[in-house]
TrEMBL record:
PROSITE patterns: PROTEIN_KINASE_ATP, PROTEIN_KINASE_DOM, PROTEIN_KINASE_TYR. ATP binds at K40. It comes from the Bacteria. The keyword Cytoplasm does not apply. It is an enzyme of class 2 (transferase). This is non-specific serine/threonine protein kinase. Pfam families: Pkinase. Keywords: ATP-binding, Kinase, Membrane, Nucleotide-binding, Serine/threonine-protein kinase, Transferase, Transmembrane, Transmembrane helix. It comes from Actinophytocola algeriensis. Its EC number is 2.7.11.1. Residues 11-259 form the Protein kinase domain. InterPro entries: GH (IPR017853), Kinase-like_dom_sf (IPR011009), Prot_kinase_dom (IPR000719), Protein_kinase_ATP_BS (IPR017441), Tyr_kinase_AS (IPR008266). One of its GO terms (molecular function) is ATP binding. The chain crosses the membrane at residues 248-270.
């Protein structure tokens, strides 16, 4: 095959990005969806192996596992179509940059452990957890690669699938001829993380976790879920430092590597990065190299964070009407917010696709979509059947129509990958969705089942926007009062509720807090930004509404938007602040309005 050839009338080969004893991988363009993918052909011509790997990949959808999209045929040969991921393998990072800090290794380990937890829950065993098979993106997201020798009870194991794994990472029981079990994956993860911190000082709490992962007896090793919880605590010990340093200090900017099914591929420099050559260097078109995987959620897009005490300010009211406001016209407001309520809204929003949306992006505005914001009468709490048992909560997110609406919104609001971003706050007030007491995760079996299913749905929606909108960044929307509730670790109430959502918060592109309390929002903002900032950058997705009295709005903004307060919030992870309609500020009085305009002029930044 040559560059320019088209596989299965859909995938145009661009260039080889790696080759090895197992086969060759090409960077390719999906001509139908207009995205970059990776396609693999085995050197042995073993089409059954590719089909088997594809079945396992299709049976596992997780943000920390490389996406497998399809298997196609061309000239009697099978090709595996996969996510093209800008990343380096952990092995290459360690060779080039030296050992990770304990917190950095734990951050990677949490993500791998959550992926393994999902695999093990489905009866799968990876069987080859090594630094070579863990990819780490530029923003620090880790993904498992190489499902080539994984086993699954629903897939027949033949040929090379009988291979037990990589020597040095095999458990004592496997080397003696025993079967690979989930405990074998956890042992290999422990060896991998031990290698990642070898020679680094101050392993402290990480050492205890690693010793439990590599216990001689399989039954004494930590499960994937337990390991994720232990590693998350280690990683949190330096969470703020990680944000300020960004990218975990792991990756050199611009390097792209694809490693799938045991193949190590040659690093390439993204166009526009230091050392790149060619006509496109520095023109911004290289943004399309970044993967846009629809099979599972994409790695977290980078969102500007702490460091300069500047904020991206936004205004609700719709991408069309907000531009006519005095605040947008007279200050550097850089984000226009639209709220989606119901399917009938699409009739108007569809007319924006060719005019309002591209015009806003052309002018340099980021767009922010809050979806959805239902009234209780429109979306009542009802009994539901979920994979986790009988649940109770709002039913709309689980309907086919809802997912179709999300696909439509992704198409309408899509922009260029190298243009202004689209921020999507999903599940407006998620902590009030389940039946029973608001802000509790485990107050009943039905509540727990509901929120577990809702997390799965959130990842599906994140996948929809990443696939349909190359500039999309997705976050979950929380009412700010969650942090102000009494902490209840036993029932997952108050700040403890965030712990139960840690797996999805950590892979979100950003997290969103909605603050509309009539009694005041100062502490809600500060506490929730600090809590959510442990996982990803934070946006105040909607500040105030008609129920917040004008005097409270005045007190809130004068307390929260001083230079010192903004600096503290940015240090905790805040990157954006969205005012919920201009009328909220106007009704607070002209002095308040002018105060806000002065703040935005001094501290506002471009997207």
């Amino acid at each position: 095959m040559r560059s320019g050839d088209v596989i299965a009338d859909r995938y145009r080969l661009e260039d080889t990005v790696g080759a090895g004893g197992m086969g060759v991988v090409w960077r390719a363009t999906d001509l139908e969806l207009r995205r970059v993918v990776a396609v693999k052909r085995t050197s042995t011509g073993d089409g059954e192996q590719l089909r088997r790997e594809a079945r396992i990949g299709a049976g596992l959808q997780h943000p920390n596992v490389i996406s497998v999209f399809d298997v196609v045929a061309e000239d009697d040969e099978r090709w595996l179509v996969m996510e093209y991921l800008p990343a380096r393998s952990l092995r290459d990072i360690l060779r080039a940059d030296g050992p990770l800090t304990p917190a950095g290794a734990a951050h990677v380990g949490v993500q791998v452990a959550t992926a393994l937890s999902a695999m093990h829950a489905k009866g799968m065993v990876h069987r080859d957890i090594t630094p070579a098979n863990i990819l780490v993106t530029e923003d620090g997201t880790a993904k498992l690669a190489d499902l080539g020798i994984a086993i699954w009870s629903e897939v027949t194991v033949t040929g090379s699938a009988q291979s037990p794994g990589t020597p040095g990472y095999l458990t004592p029981e496997v080397t003696r001829g025993g079967a690979a079990t989930p405990a074998a994956d956890m042992y290999a993860l422990g060896v991998t993380l031990s290698a990642a911190v070898e020679g680094a000082a101050g392993n402290g709490a990480l050492t205890g976790v690693l010793s439990q992962l590599t216990a001689e007896t399989p039954s004494r090793r930590l499960s994937a879920e337990a390991a994720a919880g232990r590693l998350r605590k280690v990683a949190r010990g330096t969470a703020v430092a990680r944000r300020k340093a960004t990218r975990l200090g792991l990756l050199a900017a611009g390097v792209v590597v694809v490693l799938v099914a045991g193949l190590v591929f040659v690093p390439r420099l993204l166009p526009g990065s230091e050392g790149s050559q060619g006509d496109n260097a520095g023109d911004g078109t290289g943004g399309t190299v970044a993967a846009e995987p629809p099979g599972t959620p994409a790695p977290r897009r980078e969102v500007p964070g702490a460091g300069n005490a500047k904020l991206l300010y936004g205004l609700s009211g719709g991408a069309n009407l907000a531009q006519a406001s005095e605040l947008v016209a007279e200050t550097p407001v850089g984000m226009l917010t639209t709220t989606f309520h119901q399917t009938s809204d699409l009739k108007t929003l569809n007319t924006w696709r060719e005019t309002v949306v591209p015009d806003a992006y052309r002018k340099g505005y980021a767009l922010h979509l809050i979806v959805p914001s239902w009234l209780d009468d429109d979306n009542p709490e009802i009994p539901l059947d979920t994979p986790y048992g009988r649940a109770c909560g709002r039913g709309e997110p689980f309907t086919d129509q809802f997912l179709d609406d999300m696909r439509s919104l992704a198409r309408i609001f899509a922009g260029r990958p190298d243009g202004p971003p689209l921020y999507v706050t999903v599940f407006h007030e998620v902590n009030a969705f389940a039946c029973g007491d608001d802000g509790y995760y485990e107050n009943s079996i039905a509540t727990r089942a509901y929120y577990r299913a809702l997390k799965d749905r959130y990842l599906e929606i994140r996948e929809v926007f990443h696939a349909g909108a190359p500039n999309g960044r997705v976050g979950m929307g929380w009412q700010g009062w969650q942090s102000d509730l009494d902490d209840n670790p036993e029932l997952g109430g108050g700040p403890s509720m965030f712990d139960h959502f840690a797996d999805v918060l950590a892979v979100s592109d950003f997290n969103s807090v909605l603050c509309k309390e009539p009694e005041g929002n100062v502490e809600d903002v500060r506490l929730t930004v600090a809590a959510l900032g442990e996982y990803a950058p934070v946006m105040v997705g909607a500040y105030a509404n008609k129920d917040v009295p004008p005097d409270v709005v005045d007190k809130d903004v004068r307390a929260l938007l001083t230079d010192s307060s903004i600096a503290a919030l940015v240090a905790d992870g805040l990157f954006a602040w969205n005012f919920n309609r201009e009328s909220v500020i106007i009704e607070a009085g002209r002095p308040t309005y002018e105060f806000v305009m002065d703040v935005v002029r001094r501290t506002g930044r471009e997207p």
